[in-house]
């Protein structure tokens, strides 16, 4: 059953990449927990129900109707708490969104950027309006209209502009101190190292010292700031992100393990194998075989 699900997900992702977008209605599946260790697409969700969203180093517990904006460079997970959970989701690549070259990079949007506002509470009137937009996108996705991609881009823009007019969720903690600003920059810099696209271009920044030097601060100051804001050390953030990328490369590419090790900054495959087993409890080869 697990292999069937993996194949179905793989097929879904392949189809999505061919078009650059997908729109669908969320089915009711209370109690589900979705982990997104690798996301190649921006995501906008319109949902009604009770859920807990873990986004970067923050958590949001929401009940009612919300709009959520997911950035492919920021790891997050979504826990559905209520048994009745409905809504819509649109997934799209930045290439699809910027096909006309008139749109600003989504990385600069306050809705998608690190330190932005990914969760917005909406009222019933706003929910009905946005429901209509999502239903229109679903209809166009099924149509044979020649310019449906352009039309869907317009619908996505409309959702974004409607969201920009809303007030941020009251549960969103907007830090303004220096430690948090530095931590946000560190997390953004960390995410910019991924995904690893080629073994010929291995990770440039691999240690806390590397990041501190790049940010022009003392490593002890960086470590204190990151620990204070996130509760985790700088090294832990780096290690967890490398492990996440290692899993993604093992599961979603045909690279040999030696190439993966080199791409992630390990001089010897043995070092990578020991690192991976220490952090995950299994070795890279075993994990890859489990996904076949």
Automatic annotation (TrEMBL):
The keyword Metal-binding does not apply. Pfam families: HTH_18 (PF12833). InterPro entries: Homeodomain-like_sf, HTH-like, HTH_AraC. GO terms for molecular function: DNA-binding transcription factor activity; sequence-specific DNA binding. Keywords: DNA-binding, Transcription, Transcription regulation. It comes from Segetibacter aerophilus. The keyword Protein biosynthesis does not apply. This is AraC family transcriptional regulator. Residues 184-290 form the HTH araC/xylS-type domain. It comes from the Bacteria.
């Amino acid at each position: 059953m697990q292999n069937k699900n993996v194949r179905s997900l793989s097929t879904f992702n392949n189809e999505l990449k061919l078009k650059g977008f997908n729109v669908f209605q969320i089915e009711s599946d209370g109690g589900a927990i979705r982990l997104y260790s690798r996301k190649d697409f921006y995501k906008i969700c319109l949902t009604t129900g009770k859920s807990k969203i873990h986004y970067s180093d923050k958590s949001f517990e929401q009940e009612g109707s919300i709009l959520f904006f997911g950035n492919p460079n920021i790891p997050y997970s979504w826990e559905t708490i209520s048994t009745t959970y409905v809504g819509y989701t649109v997934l799209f690549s930045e290439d699809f969104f910027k096909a006309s070259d008139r749109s600003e990079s989504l990385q600069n949007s306050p809705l998608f950027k690190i330190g932005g506002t990914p969760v917005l509470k909406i009222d019933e009137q706003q929910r009905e309006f946005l429901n209509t937009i999502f239903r229109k996108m679903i209809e166009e996705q099924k149509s044979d209209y020649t310019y449906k991609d352009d039309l869907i881009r317009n619908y996505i823009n409309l959702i974004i502009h409607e969201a920009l007019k809303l007030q941020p969720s009251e549960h969103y903690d907007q830090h303004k101190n220096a430690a948090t600003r530095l931590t946000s920059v560190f997390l953004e810099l960390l995410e910019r190292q991924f995904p690893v696209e080629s073994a010929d271009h291995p990770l440039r920044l691999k240690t806390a010292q590397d990041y501190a030097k790049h940010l022009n601060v003392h490593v002890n100051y960086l470590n204190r700031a990151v620990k204070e804001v996130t509760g985790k050390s700088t090294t832990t953030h780096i290690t967890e992100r490398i492990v996440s990328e290692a899993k993604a490369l093992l599961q979603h590419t045909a690279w040999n393990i030696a190439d993966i090790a080199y791409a992630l900054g390990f001089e010897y495959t043995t070092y990578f194998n020991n690192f991976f087993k220490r952090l995950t409890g299994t070795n890279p080869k075993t994990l890859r075989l489990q996904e076949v």
